[in-house]
Write a structure and sequence with these properties.
Length: 357
């Protein structure tokens, strides 16, 4: 680890020299790449320098301890410094191990989220709407911007499916753990007998992808326009502004009718298509990794039941890490950090264990 840190320290110094050169900014793309690399290395170098200071403090305390002789006061001071520096050194060692974990290059990206009602009919659609509200409220707490892309609304205000974007730095790093099957247990409003029903909703979280990262041949696209419509078939507008894009090689279909502008709907639909195709490509790469090396928490398998929301008990059960909290009402109001922090910590611990084996 120390050899790697020394190498990173040398690279950091090299980057600082390059960034000080005025000629660098003649090439904005290279300047942006080097600035990003420099920014990413900063927390590692800060922790490493603090670690070096703690090591030096430990060494100084050892020397002071050996020189203390019969001086009780000096001996006590040296022992206290030694204990403190060792504790700080151990803490910084752990912090550095986490900072040196392989980075998911997608973590800093914005996301496309897709929520689909599963088993449970209208009740599942209503819960899909509850999850959409939950994620938009969470995004608000982070200062992220949400925008609807497409939806299929039911008469009672639920969603058969809804696709939306969340724009914000680091959105994927936290929301990627939400991919999977979400199960709800509650008494439906339409249930006269007061029986608890179980329904499911599927969530997919896709990192946003730039067009330069994934080239799509225009010949592979079939683009249709149609009139937007809302619940019950009521027309939202009288022009054919809604867009349906079919990716011919995969048969994937993306629709967008949220905007009145045909061009804006096309841009949004292409954004979703790129993210979906990128996910397929990413999954093909992930499948090449041995199963025992794949993180259980971070797998993002949307067929896996990840969480249960039990209304009678005001309970949220996170199955992947066996965590239960009795704050369902707060959770649905967008207070997700307690569970997301626990998921991230577990994911990091799994990766650390693999790195140390």
């Amino acid at each position: 680890m120390l050899e790697k840190l020394e190498g990173l320290a040398d690279r950091y110094d090299e980057l600082e020299n390059q960034l000080a050169s005025p000629n660098l900014y003649d090439d904005p793309e290279r300047a942006a790449a080097l600035t990003k690399e420099h920014r990413n290395l900063q927390p590692i170098l800060q922790a490493y320098r603090a670690y070096q200071t703690a090591c030096q403090d430990e060494q100084d305390a050892k020397e002071l301890l050996s020189e203390a002789g019969g001086d009780a006061e000096m001996h006590a001071l040296a022992q206290e410094t030694l204990t403190s520096s060792r504790e700080q050194k151990e803490q910084l060692e752990q912090e550095l191990k986490l900072l040196l974990l392989p980075k998911d290059e997608r973590d800093e990206r914005s996301v496309i989220m897709e929520i689909r009602a599963g088993a449970g009919g209208e009740e599942a659609a209503l819960f899909a709407a509850s999850l959409y509200r939950m994620y938009t409220m969470y995004a608000d707490t982070k200062g992220w911007k949400t925008e609807r892309i497409s939806d299929s609304e039911t008469e009672l205000g639920g969603f058969r499916e809804i696709t939306f974007s969340i724009d914000g730095e680091g959105a994927f790093s936290r929301l990627k753990y939400e991919s999977g099957v979400h199960r709800v247990q509650r008494v439906p409003e339409t249930e006269s007998q007061g029986r608890v029903h179980t329904s499911t909703v599927t969530v997919a979280v896709l990192p946003e992808v730039d067009d330069v990262e994934l080239t799509i041949d225009p010949k592979d696209l079939k683009i249709d326009t149609y009139r937007s419509s809302g619940a019950g078939g009521q027309h939202i507008n009288k022009t054919s502004s809604a867009i349906r894009i079919t990716h011919l090689p995969t048969g994937m279909v993306v629709e967008c009718q949220d905007e009145r502008s045909q061009f804006k709907n096309r841009d949004k639909a292409m954004k979703v298509l790129r993210s979906r195709l990128f996910e397929i490509k990413q999954r093909e790469q992930d499948d090449a990794i041995a199963a025992e090396r794949r993180s259980q928490v971070g797998s993002g398998d949307r067929s896996e039941r990840i969480r249960t929301y039990n209304f009678p008990e005001n309970r949220v059960s996170e199955h992947r890490i066996k965590l239960t909290i009795y704050k369902l009402d707060q959770f649905l109001d967008g207070n997700l950090d307690e569970v997301l922090d626990a998921l991230i910590t577990t994911d990091q611990a799994e990766k650390l264990a693999k790195m140390e084996n």
